[in-house]
């Protein structure tokens, strides 16, 4: 997640660094206020101890302003990351089971791959996630957030890789003794490679 | 009477039996509170050892320390023990021990129930501990998601230990919550209005109401999952109309309030200790109370933030994301009220204050990372990684363990009468503080690098080796610190180094009791005029000991106290508590037999255990009351008030009301589950709906109405001096008629194993049947009491309780009949 390889992971990574900086500043402020309580009392009037400052100002207004802006940004970002219609989108299906992943491709029905998902680079891909047994979760940290595979439900996740290459993926919901090794990889291809994959090559 | 004679007289009445036998028959909060605290500390030790095993396992890549099967048991039990066998019981113990003293009363509302709760915790915890020792402990993660925990993927007994053991332990939380609510509202020192209550009591009132509404969804979920595992009722199997997401909703509907149920009592401890350490009063008392209430309400609106990655539509997530970030506002109000309090006064760096500073640093970080994970896209990345593990430890260790350590050091002189002699505490604090942050700050980072929670090992290529090793070293440093705290507590108990009576110069009433605290708690009940009675009158402890308050004369061997008006705190009723008895331990052992029979599937034993519970419960309440009118009792200062048997709203009435709050939440969760399956589960609608049965449609409401009319009529005719027998028999007839109606409903219901619909109808029907039988049993009990001479126009209290349950029965009967038959009528 700290080394994003696609647009979704990159914007979440930016969000993280932004929050880290802002929250470090807030933490420093709170600690400074805490430390200032220990300075020797020269004269009582110099210290502010009114309910209005502490409770209304710092307790209510200060967090509300920060939280509302963060919430608004988070929702806007989340709205942008969810799958929506796009003529360019490639659709694939990921079916999890203990402890493997089977991938199939709308553009090439009948073709399935085990534990390796092939996608085109630089284009959005919608992954329809299901499970054959217990709950699992589809997660490629460098490309996007995770989404659960739940019995009886199909969840769709939008991923995209900027460049051709191999990206590590893992299931992120505890599923029993084989959970450690429940991983897969995503191979993003350039246009020619992708075409040859669809035609049955690779 | 001299102070010493009073002390001896009261001690003779209130003491538990001498020697080790006393532990099994005591019902005194002074004993039971400490029993809870010691047992909870023991489980903290066990959970801590498991944590050390986890850190040992993860310290190096390709660890061969434990295989995945054993490792799953270790992390599942670490979470389970810390949440259910350490944190919640620790809170119960602290509140049981402190509340009566802070409120200025002699015991909690239902002393035998306190003991019963303890023994349920003791036996239920023992079940889980045994499973751990035999290597058959639960292994599905502490939140037990099906289908992994269903019969197909977890065929062993491991999961049953969790579902049955935890439900058994939860009885103690429900008992404690009912008891705290009634105690805080009705058992206080005369003159203590709601606005003059110690802040800790306010927090515990909020927490108790949260337990009553937060725990039932989990209890229901556990019952449903166990029904699925034991009898194949498919609530969570998608092929048969169930949905595994239902478990997640029920679990987190409990699980998120749970976090605040753990945090708020700790915040109450901070709000109590911090002003004392700063020689001032709490800034913004009313604001802090309002913030606690707001937190409680908001905490029920954010359970879905544990489910951001389950594919719930984004607009739905938006609501829960908003609630999850908003919850930071009342938290901020409290944090700044505390810092403002320090600015207002002069803070002193004594040992409890050190832990409060540790709390501030840790909890603020945990709160900020909490806001981060409340932002949906960020959560999509870090959910189920070590980042979340780190976050929750910052919140729970920072928000609970540090305040509890502060509380232990603060109240230790009250328990032992001794001061600390060896100065281990400061060193221990340094080790804990440094060790904690080294462990968990590092864990955030490795989570961001992609380390999932609950993996048993990883490869050197992952690049997590160094961070995990640092984290493990930190964990062991912290463990040394905690071990030092334990040693120091034991030393303080053993080494006699007398503490002054009010060592911290606190203003609240718990410091007005003898030191170490006496069995009777207060020699007489003081009248209170402010939030800090000891600051108003430093001589108050002596005046209490001289018997200048209420009920200062030991008499009749009675354990006496007062119930007060909720708002004004003026004395209203005179209470005589039951004394030492082995009923609680025997009743909880039989309750345990019931759970054990389900666990080992010896079902012929189950009805015997149920009959045993009923018989003992009958005996339990039969012992109360008297066969003659006592009349108004003198309580001192020339005041006479009625005893609890001779009022309209006895303690049992109040207890019933709050128990029914929990019960109604359980029932509401069941209806929620029904509606959820209907609308969300893929396998709906079921093949066929049950067709309404006319006899049931007539007999059910008629029976319920008859039961209520009988109960209300008995109250009314008894008041005018008439004989209530006829009405009580009417209520009994109503209960029997209703039971027959529910049996008929079940007779016509579809198979409970074929589809989740049939299973739900069965649970609804059985819920109704159980309540109909219960109200019938209550009517028979009061009838028997009336025949035996326990009821008179004055001694009317018992009749009032039946009508509360009768009213509840009528409401749930109508809802069950509608829920079961309406779909068949509509389609």
Topology:
The complex is a heterodimer of chains A (202) and B (827).
Chain A: H1 7-36, H2 51-81, E1 90-97, E2 100-105, E3 112-114, E4 116-120, E5 125-131, E6 136-139, E7 147-149, E8 155-159, E9 165-171, E10 183-189, H3 191-198
Parallel strand pairs in A: 1-5, 4-10
Antiparallel strand pairs in A: 1-2, 2-3, 5-8, 6-7, 6-9, 9-10
Chain B: H1 3-14, H2 22-25, H3 29-58, H4 68-103, H5 111-133, H6 158-186, H7 199-231, H8 244-277, H9 285-299, H10 314-326, H11 328-344, H12 351-374, H13 376-382, H14 386-416, H15 425-448, H16 465-494, H17 533-536, H18 540-545, E1 559-564, E2 571-577, H19 583-599, H20 605-622, E3 633-636, E4 639-643, H21 651-680, H22 694-719, H23 725-747, H24 756-788, H25 797-826
Parallel strand pairs in B: 2-4
Antiparallel strand pairs in B: 1-2, 3-4
Helix pairs in contact in B: 3-4, 3-5, 3-16, 4-5, 4-6, 5-6, 5-19, 6-7, 6-19, 6-21, 7-8, 7-9, 7-21, 8-9, 8-11, 8-14, 9-11, 12-14, 12-15, 14-15, 15-16, 19-20, 21-24, 21-25, 22-23, 22-25, 23-24, 24-25
Question: In summary, what is this structure?
Answer:
Chain A is α+β, with helices and mostly antiparallel strands and 202 residues long. Chain A is built from three helices and ten strands; from the N terminus they run ααββββββββββα. Chain B folds into two domains: 486 residues, Cytochrome C Oxidase, Chain A (Up-down Bundle); 174 residues, Four Helix Bundle (Hemerythrin (Met), subunit A) (Up-down Bundle).
